[in-house]
Amino acid sequence: MTRPARARRLAPEARRRALVEATLPLVLRHGAAVSTRQIALAAGVAEGTIFSVFPHKEALMRAVTAAALDPASTLRELADVDGSLPLRARLVAGVEILQSRLTGVFGLLDALGMHRPPDEEECDHPAPSTMNDAFRVAIADLVGPDADALRVPPGELAHVLRLLVFSGTHPRICDGAPLTAEQIVTVVLDGYSHHHCDHHHGGTRSC
């Protein structure tokens, strides 16, 4: 078997990031049983290099979990959604980004046999309340100038949307039948838009 080429010399923070990135897919495949030898091979480094960056394997695993929970890259993706798209398309794009994050987080927790994310004291990541607030703001920002098309404030739509994304994506909550981004946005947007009409006594009435 051909060994992977040794990785080039990196600055300490870059080496730490490279090891975390190489470890994550291995954890998803092997769970906590992944060996430092497997990690070293995937990262293209000597096994001892891992311990020059992390004091022990558990520290590396905590760093992997923290990286998976870190909301920064997801928030950047939400901020980069094309603002010229129609509201519905912007929200669908946002939901797809959130679902991708949650799928990764749920997969990691399942691989590690964890029923919930670790506390921020156990793993260096923002507190859940801080993350939740940041995501609500990011989703509300997607509404932007179309806020007048809603019957509720953008922040309320963002709250309900996140609840649907979480429950509709979690494999156990959704009974193995996850909601699509389009389904989630249809439920939320059509239920909260001014144009939504209700059938009443055989006719229709405007909201």
TrEMBL record:
Record's keyword terms, sorted: DNA-binding, Transcription, Transcription regulation
- Protein name per the record: TetR/AcrR family transcriptional regulator
- HTH tetR-type domain: from which residue to which, for each copy? 13-72
Checking Pfam families in the record gives: TetR_N
User: Which InterPro entries does UniProt cross-reference here?
Assistant: HTH-type_TetR-like_transc_reg, HTH_TetR
State whether keyword Transcription regulation applies. Answer: yes
Which species expresses this protein natively? Pseudonocardia abyssalis
Q: Which residues bind DNA?
A: 35-54
